[in-house]
Amino acid sequence: MTARETGKQRASRIPLDYFKHPDGIVRTKLTLTLLALAAAGLWCASGLFGDDRGRLRYSHGPLAAVHATWEADCEACHVPFAPISGGHWLASFEKPQLADSRCETCHSGTTHHQNQKPSEVVGCGTCHRDHQGRDASLVRMADSNCTNCHQQLPAHTLDGTAAFHATVTRFAAGEHPEFKVRPEPQRGKLKFNHALHLTAGLNASWQLKHIRSPEERERYRKQQAPGKQADQDLVQLDCASCHQLDGRPGEPRADGEYFLPINYEQQCRACHPLTFDERLPGLTIPHRLQPAEVRTFLWGAYVERAVDNPAVRQRLLRPLPLREFREEEDKARQAVAGQLDAVEGFLYKQVIAEKEKQLYSGKTTCGECHYYESKPGQRVPDRIVPTAVPNVWFEHARFNHRAHRAVNCQECHAPANQSTVATDILLPTMNDCLKCHAPRRSEGGKVVGGARFDCTECHRYHNGDRHQGLGAAARGAALPGTIEQFLPGAWLKKQSTAGH
Amino acid sequence: MLIDPRSWHQHRPWVLASVLLAILSTIWYFYTSHGMPYWPGGSSLPGFTFGVVGGLIILFEMLLWWRKQVRTWRIGRVQVWLRAHIWLGLLSVPLLVYHSGFQLGGQLSTVLMVLFGIVIASGIWGLALQQFLPRRMLATVPAETIYSQIEHVMRQHQEEAERLVLAVCGPAEGVAGETADEQTGDLSPETPLTIGALRSVGKVQGKVLLTQVPATAVPEAEALRDFYREQVRPYLQQGAASGSALQLANRSAALFQNVQIKLPPAAHAALAALEGLCAQRRQLDVQARLHFWLHSWLWVHLPLSAALVLLMFVHIWVALKYW
Fold first, then answer.
1. How much is the ipTM here?
2. Which residues of B touch A43 (CB under 8 A)?
3. pTM for the complete prediction?
4. In chain B, is it the N or the C terminus that has fewer CB atoms within a 10 Å radius of its CB?
């Protein structure tokens, strides 16, 4: 039986300097560590030899598609060692919004509101975060970016007042004000009866055959329901008969967000021709003339009719014989003109006066749709007020009709069928929108909501909507330049040549 | 590092602190993210703070290597450092995930996050191994020695076995190319025979005999020499790599029993000594295997940690330059 070695005996077999000679595991560990450091260093350094000098490798993430051209040019947007975001916690840093100058090379970013406290205007990068991937949106902001001010608006204005609703926290009943349409002076001046126009026959047994223009008759015939397209069928209008999106079918690159203004020639003339004399059946007064211009037109119409008389024309055209042609012709023309003036004054003054009375006081011409500016008892108004119906009724929001084309017009514009005056506001209320644009929920056993309801769904900060946005004093790039200036790196070259 | 009920009281403060910090960080982060369409990233206040703290933790984690390497750098006990290394390392996980805003970002930040994940996973794997492998080694390898000295120790054992066999069997006859003196080597009558380790007490060295060595060779003990040369010596020299049947305890016992039958009783003690050495070799083979598993995870953990630190500095530079 052999005796076991004790621990001390085992320890005495070990040379005292054993720790100076690492084993294979330790050597391998150290070798791998050196290799890993070398590999990491080489990987970093290798990027510097690329055309982008490694910027794609070191980038915080892929840029949105709209900025992808500058992905290898960090300083197209970034100022080195200056925060691009003007968040409040970075306010202690110098030049928190220095990077805005880079954004403003291409974007104007108009002022949100002139009553806004300048100290609370954050930098572009605070709201518009890039490096979120190609498909990210740079314009979808968090509601908190808006409600930071709008939940207590007076506290964030220069004079402590709020031109708008003082408290908005989200799009929900009780937390968002009811929609505000344009105030009265901006609603236009128009006389129109929706209910009448949406009734078959337009309440006057108006049939297709009553539309005089063959082209317009055919156009309205195609809009009729099948089986009701004969000449004797009553004309049945619907919303689309008059209201057309700003992108017509077949037209390329149409937005389709808003409806085109009603155009007399397109939507009204077929049934409301401005004829004025049965003896002149093909002649209509051009639209958009003021009373003085109408009178001139009428004079011209009747004079032309008179001049059209062959006997008169002959006297105008035939020169007197055996005399010097030009001198005699001039004298003859002056004589005829003088005669015409007398004839006009005698014959047409009365008829023009009658026609004017008919036009301005009748039921089928100007006064049918237009208001006048005139003194009491005045036969001919001083001015026909343009309708000036605004194209956009919610001036602080945007709406896309084409996105809602699957919904019947009257789901949102319900009172149209009963509206008899143009002063009726036939616009949806907030409750109409909340049916879809609210958190998904169950109501009465049905699931409602689910569509987006964040602030940027309907509102824009920079107010540059479609060129007619309020406050959009400047739109587009501050310095539109050549393609060379637009390419990546051009900013750096520009800065270097400018001595920055 | 063992984490068990007996050592829990030492880990508890670190665990509580790490959990508390993680909870507070989570609350702060989610409060900041409320109402935002995206998770706050490194440029937000909590994201930036977590990035700074996480980076400092990573640097501290690397300092453990220096603390263990530079033995004269006695700033705190290594055990305390290791506990801090474990729990702060785990704390860095939520901090750096929040710092990233749950996004991988570009190439550099993706590589960083992948490296970080592998480092954390390998560390957890190593910690898990440390919960049962050392105890298993303690139970199955009572003859444990220093890993790097296993072959050195076995060489000593093999030399001692050589002497023992020579002493029992005497010099071999007719071995080609070897004279009797060459076989005995330094086992001349003037050289004291030592079986076992030298034992020193102060300046006095003694010799310890593991077994009784016969004064003269035992007759009819050639089977011992043959068995030693064919089976035992290769196994003592190469261990499991020899492919010997001696690496299995039950087969080893059977082989030794077979040889014992053939040997005179006077040689049985020497045979038992050889069997003991083979048993020790088996233990040391087990120790080597366990030691490999207990330390090989560092082949992943340490190199990737070093690469992580290097890339982290690149990330810090780029992030601060273009933030």
1. 0.85
2. 111
3. 0.72
4. N
